[in-house]
Task: structure prediction
Amino acid sequence: MPAPSSRRLLPVAADAPPAHPEQQAFDTFHRRIDAQRALLAEWQAAIDAYEQRYAHDVLPLLTQYRGMHIALLDRLDHAASGGLRLGRTDAKALHELIVDIADSLLLGEDDATRRAALESLRARYAHEPEVPASGAAPAHPDDPEALLRRIEAEQAAAEADRAAQRAAHRREAAARKKQREPAALEAAQSLRAVYRQLVSALHPDREPDPEERQRKTVLMQHVNEAYAAQRLTDLLQLQQSIAEADTRRAAQAGSLPADRLAAYNRLLADQLAALQREVRELEADFKARHHLNPHGRLKPGTLGEHLRIEQAKLSNGIREMQREARLLDDADYLKQWVKAQRRMARQAHEDD
Result:
């Protein structure tokens, strides 16, 4: 497939009159399309490099970080189940902390068995225990009816949580599908439109000149391959190459009519819009896969620095959790730690 030329197609002599506005627009479109193609290639290369480094450097840290949170959750579960004597306020704060950690772990859990264990643990602490009425004796822990009511309440709470999560997932999936549908439809329509234009311009059976028919036969093979693989960028590049060739031939024969240039400019405007859309979709998909702010400003050249920052944050977080894990073995420290977590949560709530 011939590479598109980046040279000005209709050179103007130094003493020639100013180019026609359509010619100026034609040249501007070519420069912008070349720049957009370069940006698309830069994004693709930067994302490939990011994914490789992410798998090698960041993913192992994330796995370790997650494992340490699971160990912390087990430790807090043991403390809340009777391993640590706490006042009612601190016990409630500990329960809320367990629920928060379980929620964060559930977001990234795909294994059904581990997910069920996390949901079961979360359900045990999701609701504050009932307070006996004034003057009433608390239910004995071995009372069968009280035990049955507690189990039923836990099961109902767990099922309600699962139903709420399923509903939330369905809403999120529907919203993502709704957002993708217009872009997918627009991309498919652009692909078909460009393909039809190329078939109309290149069909070999309509070409009487044997040499030109052979050239068009080869180009049609490239067009069909690109269309079968749904590669819009390749089709656009072929389209631009053909437009350039036609323009050069017309320029050699004399000046290109303004209406012809205007037609080419409309074609180039469509190409530019399609390339810009492809860059936006590539960036949006990358942000979605890595849970980045969809509205944040990001450039291909900054992905490496972003990865280094994330890696440093994880490393620091792991070191801090390792230090805390050793200290939490002490019951007195664990009590103070729970109180500190409660104070931080209250301060965050007041700030909000």
